[in-house]
Amino acid sequence: MEPLVTSVAPESDVPDEPAQQWPCPPAGGYTADHLDRLPNLPPHTELIDGSLVFVHPQTAFHARAMRLLENHLLQAAPPEWEVARQMTITLGPRDRPEPDVLVVKSEGLMGPEQTAFQPKDVVLAIEVVSADSEARDRDTKPRKYAAAGIPHFWRVESDGGLPVVYVFELEPATKAYVPTGIYRDQLKVGVPFTIDIDLTAINPRQQ
């Protein structure tokens, strides 16, 4: 088995400084299984097209938007569905992205040590856009989610600190998402279940 890390000598001249351990890609790139085997990966590392993607520190908007959506989805979701936060989806051997919030079928939960879901169990994937993830969240990841058959996708962007939610639904014949609405102030939809969220409540402590 090929090693997944390699020692790299430190750039500084400090004596006795330990060598750093950096991921060492195997021939052909990483696979989805490698995410569970690589030591000391930063939190929320994703796999896109066989390459590791490291995320920048989370902004206050990002954290608040995830909390707002997760809390309301937990209240509204039917009992046969679960809401998860920042867990990966194994889309294929070379793709294991991590949406910010997911709605999944209850049967997709296999146990407390589970680290990823299968696309067939994911009902809704939500990405909150950050400066470093804009291209992935607007293009790369939704294309891959649609190709995998995930029926609903939301993209959340900041407009002066308030969330704007772009809602998409899968067109099954083309395996592509079509936009069904852009929501400011109030997100009210009937699929995948009835949801009504006051988007202006993103920071209730300031209200």
**Estimated radius of gyration:** 19 Å
Structural class: alpha+beta
Shape: globular
Uncertain stretches: 6-12
How are the strands of the biggest sheet laid out side by side? Answer: 5-7-9-10-11-12
User: How much helix, percentage-wise, in residues?
Assistant: 10-25%
What is the ordering of alpha helices and beta strands?
EEEEHEEEEEHEEEEE
Q: DSSP helix count?
A: 2
Distance between the termini: 56 Å
Major sheet summary line: 6 strands, mixed
Provide the residue-averaged pLDDT: 89
How would you describe this protein?
With 207 residues, the protein is α+β, with helices and mostly antiparallel strands. Helices cover 15% and strands 34% of the residues. The chain is built from 2 helices and 14 strands; from the N terminus they run E-E-E-E-H-E-E-E-E-E-H-E-E-E-E-E. The longest helix has 17 residues. It starts with a strand and ends in a 9-residue tail after the last strand. About 3% of the residues have low confidence.
Pick out its properties:
alpha+beta; 207 residues; six-stranded mixed beta sheet; two-stranded antiparallel sheet; globular
Short précis:
This protein has 207 residues and is α+β, with helices and mostly antiparallel strands. Helix content is 15%, strand content 34%.
Draw up the topology in text.
Layout lengths: L4 E4 L11 E4 L22 E3 L2 E3 L6 H17 L4 E5 L2 E2 L11 E5 L10 E2 L4 E7 L5 H14 L4 E8 L2 E10 L4 E9 L1 E4 L5 E4 L9
Parallel strand pairs: 6-8, 9-10
Antiparallel strand pairs: 1-2, 3-4, 5-7, 7-9, 10-11, 11-12, 13-14
